[in-house]
Amino acid sequence: MITMYSTTWCGYCRRLKSQMDREGIEYQVIDIEEDPASAEFVMSVNGGNQTVPTVRFEDGSALTNPTIVQVKQKLAAA
């Protein structure tokens, strides 16, 4: 299962969640404002920035603010 790092106020996060729901893609959401370790991970893959949505895949790779097409392509390649 993939993990989406998010915040409650992020419009891009809400859009991607709704698109993944529509496509039937299973995912777990972690609010980086409530989980400092997750915020550290997000910063580690985004040049020190807390950019969300950041999506981490089962292979450990991550995409920052991906489109649903990018998420589907990454899942298909796995």
From TrEMBL:
Gene3D superfamilies: Glutaredoxin (3.40.30.10). Residues 2-57 form the Glutaredoxin domain. InterPro entries: GlrX_actino (IPR011915), Glutaredoxin (IPR002109), Grx-like_ET (IPR051548), Thioredoxin-like_sf (IPR036249), Thioredoxin_CS (IPR017937). GO terms for biological process: cell redox homeostasis. One of its GO terms (molecular function) is electron transfer activity. It comes from the Bacteria. It holds the Pfam family Glutaredoxin. This is Mycoredoxin. It comes from Stackebrandtia albiflava.
